[in-house]
From TrEMBL:
Database matches in PANTHER family: UDP-GLUCOSE 6-DEHYDROGENASE TUAD
Species: Longilinea arvoryzae
Protein family (similarity comment): Belongs to the UDP-glucose/GDP-mannose dehydrogenase family.
Reactions catalysed, as given in the entry: UDP-alpha-D-glucose + 2 NAD(+) + H2O = UDP-alpha-D-glucuronate + 2 NADH + 3 H(+)
Protein name: UDP-glucose 6-dehydrogenase
Domain of life: Bacteria
Annotated Gene3D superfamilies: Cytochrome c1, transmembrane anchor, C-terminal, NAD(P)-binding Rossmann-like Domain
Lineage of origin: Bacteria, Bacillati, Chloroflexota, Anaerolineae, Anaerolineales
Record carries keyword NAD: yes
Domain UDP-glucose/GDP-mannose dehydrogenase C-terminal: 315-416
């Protein structure tokens, strides 16, 4: 049993803290956001993540998990402090480290016993050394025995608990092998490969992994765009490719492109690091450009199908950047809605979890309480997030409600042939169906 402190109670901090508590450790989760902590103290989750509420309440009841806004309370007798604060994109695409700095300074101010500081946030290569400098400078001459370990997180929103508890690997980087070994002990019961390396390599593994996954998606989207012109079906192409063991089937779903709180900012940050150090990240630039175009292509399709967008009614199914989350950061739906509204379209939408976030983001968006309300009177329906709830809709009812039977399936979720047989003008992504010019 280890006494742990997790700084930041967002998607990563809260999941990390509750999972470590569940594995038998004593965990204090800390956040500077009062509202978030009082919600958590009352058993209310500040984010939607399947299974999280139960995991938190179980471990709070067992006395292994607590929440606070007080650094002094959270850091009391802590052996390992995880920094899991946000690292958003700055103005040039570089990662903004102000929250990491503030967390490191608070540790430096309040701790006198030996401590391991673990960077779990996604941070630029070199940040581990920088955190050590920040702590040393802040201490002035006051001695502190501490080591910095990089432990990037690979969980996905929507399946975060399962990903944390069943990782493909755990990556640890440190200049001090003993410190990395101590952190490794926390993960031993998960029985997964543990890669122990130096700080900078560990930090790069995180960026390279995200950039590679984003590249796969942009690649298949580019293939999809070519398929559309040549009359091939990208879904079948991806299946045929993915059966090759060297390629594998994951992350080959063509659609509106990648969004979320990680891929966009991390690919940008990696490209920024490259440029800063005199390297041209040509592939990363193309990967980002393809992704930007993927959203715009939907607008082009709609314009063609409806002969213009001014005063058209468009229905959007799905607002979160992917299913099983309420997170709308860089969600494809956000850009699609902006582009539609800019062209004078009236937009209605529904999402099973992201309605509250959407209401704050789009004052002019009509929020509906189910897919049928969205379909009512629209000229086109656009599927932007492949929630389970959208998989089996009553399309006869939808056909009867819509003003024009145009469907853009931005996630290739539905059976196009069946929908065409039901009277829809169905357009998937990369599925070889041409629109008239
Ligand atoms: N979201 C994901 O799926 C995911 C997965 C892997 C890695 N990451 C990385 O993990 C980090 C955290 O991401 P997230 O999505 O959990 O962020 P988030 O925005 O959901 O949460 C960050 C939390 O940190 C708190 N915070 C900010 N400054 C603080 C401070 N000085 N002291 C204490 N708390 C502070 C904020 O109030 C907020 O609650 C990022 O670097 C991200 O790139 C995210
Ligand atoms: O074949 C695919 C797979 C995903 N996506 C899109 O890609 C984005 C990201 O999806 P996913 O990776 O499932 O979600 P995240 O929760 O953002 O997780 C990514 O980002 C996290 C933060 O760094 C990492 O920890 C995870 O390993 C990494 O998968 C979403 O918009 C998806 O719709 C596709 O378009 N096609």
């Amino acid at each position: 049993m280890t006494k742990i402190c997790v700084i930041g109670t967002g998607y990563v901090g809260l999941v990390t803290g509750s999972c470590f508590a569940d594995l038998g450790n004593t965990v204090a989760c800390l956040d500077v956001d009062d509202t978030r902590i009082s919600k958590l103290k009352n058993g209310v989750m500040p984010i939607y993540e399947p299974g999280l509420e139960q995991l938190v309440s179980q471990n709070v009841r067992a006395g292994r998990l607590s929440f606070t806004t007080e650094y002094s309370e959270a850091l009391k007798e802590t052996e390992i402090a995880f920094i899991a604060v946000g690292t958003p994109s700055g103005s040039d695409g570089e990662a903004d480290l102000q929250y990491v700095r503030s967390a490191a300074e608070s540790i430096a101010d309040l701790v006198d016993d030996p401590i391991i500081i673990v960077n779990k946030s996604t941070v630029p290569v070199g940040t581990g050394d920088w955190v050590a400098d920040v702590v040393r400078k802040r201490r002035g001459g006051k001695a502190l025995e501490f080591h910095v370990v990089s432990n990037p997180e690979f969980l996905r929103e929507g399946s975060a608990i399962n990903d944390f508890m069943n990782p493909d690997r755990v990556v640890l980087g440190s200049t001090e092998r003993e410190a990395a070994n101590k952190v490794a002990q926390l993960y031993l019961t998960l029985r997964c490969p543990i890669v122990i390396t130096d700080l900078r390599t560990a930090e790069m593994i995180k960026y390279a992994s995200n950039a590679f996954l984003a590249t796969r998606i942009s690649f298949i989207n580019e293939i999809g765009n070519i398929c559309e012109e040549l009359g091939a079906d990208v879904c079948e192409v991806a299946r045929g490719m993915g059966l090759d063991k060297r390629i594998g089937p994951s992350f080959l779903d063509a659609g509106l492109g990648w969004g979320g709180s990680c891929f966009p900012k991390d690919v940008k940050a990696l490209a920024h690091m490259a440029v800063l150090h005199g390297t041209q990240p040509q592939l990363l630039q193309a990967v980002m450009e393809i992704n930007r175009n993927q959203r715009r292509r939907v607008i082009v399709k709609l314009r063609k199908a409806l002969g213009g967008l001014n005063d058209r009614e468009i229905g959007i199914l799905g607002l979160a950047f992917k299913p099983n989350t309420d997170d709308m950061r860089e969600a494809p739906a956000v850009e699609v809605i902006h582009l539609l509204q800019n062209e004078g379209a009236h937009v209605k939408a529904y999402d099973p979890q992201a309605m509250e976030n959407a209401g704050q983001m789009f004052p002019r968006l009509t929020l509906c309480s189910n897919p049928y309300e969205v379909a009512d009177g629209v000229d086109a329906l656009v599927l932007t997030t492949e929630w389970n709830e959208f998989k089996q809709l009553d399309f006869d009812r939808i056909r009867g409600l819509m003003r024009q039977p145009v469907i853009i399936d931005g996630r290739n979720l539905w059976d196009g042939e069946r929908l065409r047989a039901q009277g829809f003008n169905y357009y998937g992504i990369g599925r070889g169906n041409h629109l008239p010019d």
